[in-house]
Amino acid sequence: MAKDNFVEQIADIETDFPQWYTDVVVKTKLVDYGPVKGTMVIRPYGYAIWENIQKEMDRRFKALGIENAYFPLLIPMSFMTKEAEHVEGFAPEVAVVTHAGGEKLAEPLCIRPTSETIIGSMYSKWIQSYRDLPVLMNQWANVMRWEKTTRPFLRTSEFLWQEGHTVHASEDEAMDETLKMLAVYEEFARTCLAMPVLTGRKTEKEKFAGAVATFGMEAMMHDGKSLQAGTTHYLGQNFAKAFDIRFLDKDGTLKYGYTTSFGVSTRLIGAIIMTHGDARGLVMPPVVAPVQAVIVPIASKKEGVMEACRALKEKLAAAGIRVVLDDSENSPGWKFNEWEMKGVPVRIELGPRDLEAGKCLLFRRDTLEKTECALDGAEQSVRTLLSQISENMYDRAKARMDSRIVRAGSLDELLAGVEGGNFVRAGWCGCRECEDKVKEFAQATARVLDGEKTSDTCVVCGKKAEHTVIFARAY
Amino acid sequence: MAKDNFVEQIADIETDFPQWYTDVVVKTKLVDYGPVKGTMVIRPYGYAIWENIQKEMDRRFKALGIENAYFPLLIPMSFMTKEAEHVEGFAPEVAVVTHAGGEKLAEPLCIRPTSETIIGSMYSKWIQSYRDLPVLMNQWANVMRWEKTTRPFLRTSEFLWQEGHTVHASEDEAMDETLKMLAVYEEFARTCLAMPVLTGRKTEKEKFAGAVATFGMEAMMHDGKSLQAGTTHYLGQNFAKAFDIRFLDKDGTLKYGYTTSFGVSTRLIGAIIMTHGDARGLVMPPVVAPVQAVIVPIASKKEGVMEACRALKEKLAAAGIRVVLDDSENSPGWKFNEWEMKGVPVRIELGPRDLEAGKCLLFRRDTLEKTECALDGAEQSVRTLLSQISENMYDRAKARMDSRIVRAGSLDELLAGVEGGNFVRAGWCGCRECEDKVKEFAQATARVLDGEKTSDTCVVCGKKAEHTVIFARAY
A409: which residues sit within 8 A by CB, 6+ positions away? Predict the structure, then answer.
């Protein structure tokens, strides 16, 4: 059967999740492997998701007064070394340009792994007075981090992202910005990706190289592993001092600014796939789905069917729904399977009998349920259904995540927890040694510090806990 | 006077146009120089123009069925050498990555100067059958060409662009695509940039490295020099053969595809500046202007003025006009000059007397004329004025260009023509030697071949002319 052929193309999601992921991203044409090891080609179906992410995120940024700009790809190597922790963190991963225009360069240039340094050097030039603050900028760009082990969207040598970079006159204002952007990311993940996340501060070990404090949002993937889906950084005066970002304050004295940075990347596409996907393939959240509804004509040769399908398509498109009419020569069954694998939220079936009854069938990808719908006013029904799907996908993922956060009082319990595909909440004394021991013993890392006060003891050493931590294995 | 101070910041456009350009791009904060020689930082006011260009162009592409994708930045050096003319043209300009992740790479990688090669390698993998054709893709990306002499927007080592890449089953279809995209560019330049262009085929000397034929659009800058503002390339089977892009045709035989490519870049921002700018600075075409209207309160402390300005701003914004209310503490005169330098198409002045009369003053940047306008329905008046400005800017630039295309029957006339800041139309026999002689004698190049049939003689050798050519000095 056609259906079986399709499903056979994809590895079983429960028994071989890594292979399922690889099969799905390649077979739905989201992505392909580039000729250079570790690189990816984002194909139109994948890039359309990114365009929708950009549109939604960019609207939020602009509403907050954040302006887009574009800074150079190549950074002088000497810039990287100005902030000690920063160079330590990123130098091992950079790609280096040594020759250009047929000549050896006097100073090697690195391809940006992130742009704090080059943007800092420009801010230093642009900022003179407290009147120039705050500076709120963002760029949509490609960055490069040379990684040993790569997987499409999750970890590739080059990826696309947005990086926000702000400068403020005070510590409080910069910290507020850092937390505000974390909240923007959380709301975006919930509303646009139907993706629940845990947010919180990162440990010293897990923070951004050069930050005073990093905050992250972590999402639970199908296999119970965590994926860092976005981070915001309070950089204090570290980069301001390294790049001499100073302003004349109201009191007439020259002060260093306080900076922040924040970013999300094409990794979010991997997060969508691994949060919502099922045995049949992708399940796309409606807000960022490249195609929100597909119309499949049934018995398309019968009189009036194709005309009705085309009219319906026009009506939905006019209502702002991203709709495709599949008028290819494949059988309806083949089309069903293909669009299910591609995760299109709503399938609309329309045949002669439906037409006669003035209705069509709506199939929703998230629950696999079918309902009837009057052709008259179908655009409203589809729009409502898309909202319901979005909410249901979020609720389902949230319930699943919540049910898979377990407590551990010992390393053995922690190990059992993560091996069972859970996030593990446990006390931690705050020392690096205990954090390393968790990694060694359970291959789990501290994802975020949990807000709640704790009277716990450290899951490793048994001393009084300083923090409650969410530990998990992570992508 | 404030006004004089402002104008003094910018060199005189008539006597020192290069300095005028540098002054204007830096002082209006469109751009700044990056730390690496030849690189630029596109600041928010400049990047907003690019975002508007992208939005308008992308809409046109999508309406034509062109899909966006993203291909890797780094291209194996061996790819570049597969098409003989291509490597000859681009190898001298590439930036080369030799080290990454702390190791020397087995094969050096070049940063894309353009992506025909890497995209060709992927198309070869994706295209099997005639059913897969045509393939119509585009990417918005950064590219790098190491240039000796650079100027912001016009020629920088890194720039942003779009590059379309298509594959077709036949020569005719590919050539049609090449010419269709040239027409899209021309319409875009006219409608969105108020910029008249001459379009036509390029000579062999001036064509893209690896193309069978290149078509370009050329715009006349304030100093009479030409700027290549966009190109489309018919690549024949050159890249299809180099990268083995083959498809099984309906007749059951395996055939090479025919490919095209086309691109416009951030250079367009330079073209806008140098087409429309005047002694006071920028004159922004309304469709892509970051700010379309600025409201300047007069006697802003007087009762009701700021409230009225804010209400007007809301009304204009709700009507989809990109509007700014300048409520800074600067004097109205200072504001006038600043926003004039920034080229905002419409300035709205609103003071107590206007308010009493229920009107405001509209100042248009293109003609420097003022008109009164009722506050009631101001959004409609501003919208109409923006359209008029756009049309007037085009008509004015078109009349200017048309009046500065002169004929030449000899090399001396040609030299006099370009020295007078004109485009020169002249006969050409078609040989490279004569083309080189024009360059040597008059520092002018063949911009495009003119469509009209000619009974002319070659401006250099006096033999029968094969083509009529537009010669000009160029950026």
Answer: A426, A457, A459
- Give pLDDT, residue A8: 63
Distance CA B14, CA B61 (A): 38
* Structure tokens given for A374: 């009057």
Q: Is the dihedral of CA A129, A132, A134, A136 positive or negative?
A: negative
Cα torsion B67, B69, B73, B76 to 10°: value is -90
Residue B427: exposure state from Cβ atoms within 10 A (0-12, 13-18, ≥19): buried
Whether B67 contacts chain A with CB within 8 A: yes
User: Are the beta carbons of A97 and B95 separated by less than 8 Å?
Assistant: yes
DSSP A330: S
For B258-306, the pLDDT digits (tens) are 999 999 999 999 999 999 999 999 999 999 999 999 999 999 899 999 9
pLDDT at A6: 55
Nearest residue in B to A51, CA atom: B68
Q: How far apart are CA B394 and CA B196, in angstroms?
A: 6
Q: Measured between alpha carbons, how far is A113 from A94 in angstroms, rounded to an integer?
A: 6
Q: Tell me the DSSP string of B99-130.
A: EETTEEEEEEEEE-SS-HHHHHHHHHHH--BG
Dihedral angle at the C-alpha atoms of A299, A305, A307, A308, nearest 10 degrees?
A: -130
pLDDT at B9: 84
Instruction: Tell me if ipTM is over 0.90.
Output: yes
**Residues of chain B above pLDDT 90, percent:** 95
Q: Does pTM top 0.90 for this prediction?
A: yes
Smallest CA-to-CA distance from B322 within B295, B352, B354, B361 is with B295
* Residue carrying the six token digits 């919208």: B383
Distances from the Cα of B448 to the Cαs of B152, B224, B310, in angstroms? 25, 15, 50
Query: How do residues B35-48 score in pLDDT, each as one tens digit?
Result: 999 999 999 999 99
What is the pLDDT, as a whole number, of residue A456? 87
pLDDT given for residue A454 in this prediction: 73
Q: Amino acid letter at A49?
A: I
What's the number of CA atoms in the CB half-sphere (13 Å) around residue B122? 26
Q: Measured between alpha carbons, how far is A291 from A45 in angstroms, rounded to an integer?
A: 9
At residue A255, φ and ψ (nearest 5 deg) are -130, 155
Given a cut of 60, is residue A236 above it in pLDDT?
A: yes
The H or E element spanning position A19 is: helix A17-27
Q: How many CA atoms lie within 13 A of B242 on its CB side?
A: 24
Amino acid at B212: V
Instruction: Please report how many Cα atoms fall inside a 13 Å half-sphere around the Cα of residue A256, on the Cβ side.
Output: 14
Report chain A's mean pLDDT, rounded to a whole number.
96
Give the confidence band of B1 by pLDDT, cuts at 50, 70, 90: very low
Q: Residue B3: its pLDDT value, please?
A: 45
Tokens in use for A372?
């009837």
Pick the closest to residue A136 from A146, A149, A123 (CA basis): A123
Which secondary-structure segment (H or E) carries A137? strand A135-144
CA distance B305 to chain A (A): 24
Contacting residues of A for B74, CB less than 8 Å apart: 36, 39, 95, 144, 157-158
Amino acid at the residue B64: L
Mutation target among B31, B94, B97 for the A interface, most CBs of A within 10 A? B97
- Tally helices (H) and strands (E) across chain A: 15, 23
Per-residue tokens: B99 = 């080290």
Query: In Å, how far is B38's CA from the nearest CA of chain A?
Result: 10
Longest dimension (CA), chain B: 82
Q: Which DSSP string corresponds to B291-338?
A: -SEEEEESSTTSTTHHHHHHHHHHHHHHTT--EEE--SSS-HHHHHHH
Question: Residue A16 corresponds to which tokens in the numbers above?
Answer: 């071989």
Phi/psi region, residue A122 (left: phi>0; alpha: psi -120 to 50; beta: rest), is: alpha
